Amino acid sequence: IVHNSCIESLQAITRARNEGQRVFGEVLAGHLLVNDEVYRNPDWDFAAAHVMSPPFRSKEHQDALWRGLQAGMLQTTATDHCCFCAPQKRMGHNNFTQIPNGTGGVEDRMHVLWHHGVNSGRLTMNEFVAITSTNAAKIFNIYPRKGSISVGADADIAIWDPTKERTISKDTHHQNVDFNIFEGMTVKGINTVTISQGKVVYQDGDVRTERGAGRYVDRPTFAPYYDAVNRRREAKTPVAGNRM
Asked: Does the pLDDT of residue 118 top 90, yes or no?
């Protein structure tokens, strides 16, 4: 269940998991860190830049979502990266329903989650790895090829410097958009090198990706979770008795 943004959705997932159902939850980095005050900003462009679905909520909901991550009721994090520049957002200047829906965040997800998760004590380093990589790989049945540093896995590695700082800004990010929902946020702990398929594709701010270098990742059907569900169903199926 993706894009959980409120207490009620977290409660529904928690209830289902407590009843033994195989349910997984995802939360966006923005919903953990940006609250609904942004919509009250008198600057129309600023407020419109944050219009997305579901919308950003109050701090009460943010705190609950963090607890959901800590408790393991939410297993993955994402950004739903879909950004628009100010001129595009202004298509809805006289009609709210015409504002293009979406925000960015993929470039900063790991940094803000480390800073506000690990540095704050909300998450351990291992939990950070799980919610940003390993859990998703397992859910989509591509583990251990992805989500693991091991023999036989793809050499996709982020090298992390927990002491290095950067201030997030639209003026310095690599995204081709004129706004950043994390604008002005200083984070401590960033990746300095990114390796994909054994090749360095990013180092100290320099993006070195090559067009066409990506490979299709085959995702086998029916992850191990399905086997567990089927076994449980079979175990609960009534068996006809022989009264003879």
From this structure: yes
C-alpha–C-alpha distance, residues 75 and 24, integer Å: 6
78 found inside a domain: yes
Q: Which residues 6+ apart lie within 8 Å of 22 measured at CB? A: 225, 228, 229
Residue 241 lies in a domain: no
Distance CA 55, CA 39 (A): 9
Q: Is the pLDDT of residue 109 over 90?
A: yes
The pLDDT of residue 233 is above 90: no
- Which residue matches tokens 């086997």? 227
Kindly state whether residue 30 falls inside one of the protein's structural domains.
Answer: yes
Domain of 25, CATH number, reads: 3.20.20.140
Cα-Cα-Cα-Cα dihedral sign, residues 50, 53, 56, 62: negative
Note the pLDDT of residue 244: 64
- Total domains in the chain come to 1
**In contact, 217 and 146? CB cutoff 8 Å:** yes
Q: What is the model's pTM?
A: 0.92
Q: Name the residue range of residue 91's domain.
A: 7-217
